[in-house]
Queue: 3 jobs
Job 1
Amino acid sequence: MKNVDYIIVGGGYAGVFFAHQLLQHGKSFIMYSEGLKSASHISAGIVNPVVLKKFTTFWLAEEQIDFLSQTMAEIAIYTGKNYLVNERIHRIFHDESEKELWLKKSQTEELRPFLDPCFEQLDVVENPFGTGAVQKSARVNVDDFFTDFLKYLSEKYILINERFYHESISGDQYKDVKFKNIVFCEGMGVRDNPFFCDIPVIPNKGHHLKVQLEQKPTNRYTIKKKHFLFPLNDDFHYYGGTYDPNERENEIDDFKEVELKESLVAFYLHDFKTVEVNYGFRPTVKDRRPILGHHPEHLNYFVYNGLGARGILNGCYFARELFEHIEFGKDLMPEVDVTRFRK
Ligand SMILES: Cc1cc2nc3c(=O)[nH]c(=O)nc-3n(C[C@H](O)[C@H](O)[C@H](O)COP(=O)(O)OP(=O)(O)OC[C@H]3O[C@@H](n4cnc5c(N)ncnc54)[C@H](O)[C@@H]3O)c2cc1C
């Protein structure tokens, strides 16, 4: 029999950032992950404090960005790499009035830290009204982040690359592992979890393309028109992701691939070749807040879910909230507490 402080189920942003909290605090644990490509693994990795439709910001944006920088610096100590790429988002303006709105908002107290009032014209893409840069925006190198982090856990025999079978839990034991706490970080997989399948997460399916551009932009920016376009490690660019809140099958939707290609053709001025199409399901919540907390009867069974479209910022920030709640009895913020659905 093996004794651990924690079992984590799931190796997406929720599971990995929670694992980091455990490593930082010297807790023993085992992570079960099916090893399938989930929303986290195919995500764009964008870290963005601004809602780019309306030029507004959101709850805890600045605190979350600061905490992400701190966390990534801590992770770099044991994986040996920095995964935060400081390439700012450049939002292409649709017309003159958007530009004026940006300028006006960049002078408000709330948006001043984020909206650069100096505009820039980009090459290779159509941007007759120019672009505005989002300060403090960045990008996580998603492929390297997951490859390295999961490899680190594997080498320490912490990661078990297999499905977790809920029917095999008995009290504080799963197979030959005895645990103090178990944290379910399963994304949309939570629907198969008999302890937490009632949490109201809604799948929002997203697709992206990996493309080879005939001509690359001179500067390594993240360009935002309808979706994000940015350079990857290799010779390719990422373009996506789409949003689709309808229940969909676990397969590529051809119409979404077409939609992506058409929207890229609409502003990229040269030819491109699609080399890959990927999709995933974001676990979203109507009130746009994550879901954290324990099971009503099994007090050491926890859920960590509902990261929505901001898997990185939410995943990183609320991992600490959950850890401090479990270990130090810190109250959960009511906005994210699972009990808000148990009235
Ligand atoms: C196209 C696209 C682009 C995105 N871009 C961004 C972005 O730029 N920035 C951003 O912040 N967010 C982005 N997101 C959102 C982000 O990806 C999600 O919020 C995030 O992935 C949710 O993480 P998670 O760990 O909760 O779930 P998931 O990523 O779904 O991870 C859950 C994991 O648990 C595993 N699992 C489930 N059940 C079991 C079981 N029984 N046994 C073992 N393993 C199990 C799954 O296999 C999976 O690996 C994007 C999403 C999509 C789809």
Job 2
Amino acid sequence: MNSRGLWRLGFVGSVIGLLLLPWGLGSAQGQSATKEFMVVTGEWQWKAKPGEAPVTDRNRGSVTVMTRYTYDPGFLVVNKGDTVVLTIHNLKGDHHIVDIPAFGINEVKIIRGEERKFTFKADKAGLFKIDCKNHVSAEKEGPMVAYFVVLDR
Ligand SMILES: [Cu+2]
């Protein structure tokens, strides 16, 4: 290849590099993305067999039956600016009342077998709770809570 051919090759390579630069910078800075989560509701229960001692449940003292409802998974992480698509499927429990007030989801009832989809923008960083207003305490087979972390960047 002569010097003119090398020059053309270098020029074309530079143009391609410049065209790819925004993509590279965007990746380095972490562009917003859509993050999808599939969460199911779960139910854990412990029941004393004959001859077994009761266990101590918070707020209730000694009990022979203990039930807790859960979100599974119970810990979700996104970046600030991401669009979140959160699907919650009620597999266990009569009904749950999903509450994420920081992102405009206020007490949405999901009955057994039902699947609900929530879409919102994670526009603020921090640690947020996904509560169930039907299972708020040990007396109500809770607290049923998941944690939603929005990372600042
Ligand atoms: Cu619940």
Job 3
Amino acid sequence: MTPQHTGTVLELRGIGVSFGGLVALDDVSMTAATGTVVGVIGPNGAGKTTLFNVICGFVEPNTGSVLFEQKPLRPRPHQLAAKGIVRTLQGVGLFRGLTVLENVMAGATHTARAGLVSALLGLPRSDRDERRLRDEAMTLLDELGIAEHAQAWPGTLPYAVGKRVALARALVARPRLLLLDEPAGGLGGEDVDELAALIVDLPRRSDCSVMLVEHHMDLVMKVCDQIVVLDFGRVVASGTPAQVRDNPAVAEAYLGAEVGS
Ligand SMILES: Nc1ncnc2c1ncn2[C@@H]1O[C@H](COP(=O)(O)OP(=O)(O)OP(=O)(O)O)[C@@H](O)[C@H]1O
Ligand SMILES: [Mg+2]
């Protein structure tokens, strides 16, 4: 099965952000094709997180525009999931007082599907909606290979399992664009490989495009269709993993960072 959509899921045009006198992003333009995995890499302080924050509406750019599915997006963090964009937080970020299954179900509370009318009327979600959501959450846990942890408390989970729960919680909202903030952060070798296999599959299996910020080069090279390289807030290279790997500007950006740090 190949992804159904063609086209552009996300386009950034001339994004500029400055914090006081510091230019964090300078005329950043990029496009992410629907059904692909796009990586944003670059040395510390390059502007990667700021770029995510612009897409999510946490940071308002001084210049430029964001287009989601070819329409101008005026991002507001609390409306993002309803629009089809979900971001995972750095780290794990689960609710400690809820079980794994409940955490995943909570990921769907801001979608219109389950209980918009109930919510408007101030009524509890119907039993049927709740059961359907529970089934969906269980299916996701199963697909991510962590169904056995459904009734566990987040505090008791191995770190790598917690990261997968967070992924399931993002997916239950059925995003069309999933933003992953350092998904491999804190994971060891084997867990990174397994995560890579999951991410590569997302466009096809969950019908969503993926954009990720990641320092873990192995993962980036393995899972991304396209990579955008930032350095000092500017796009210094972009292309396929092979093109980026062979681009001298990329080595320079990282070398410069190493020498400078
Ligand atoms: N809210 C803010 N106020 C002031 N400066 C900021 C703010 N957020 C980021 N910056 C600065 O903007 C630049 C880009 O930061 P950003 O966090 O986007 O980099 P990054 O590529 O995500 O780095 P890292 O790999 O270390 O996470 C840095 O110089 C940073 O200090
Ligand atoms: Mg960052």
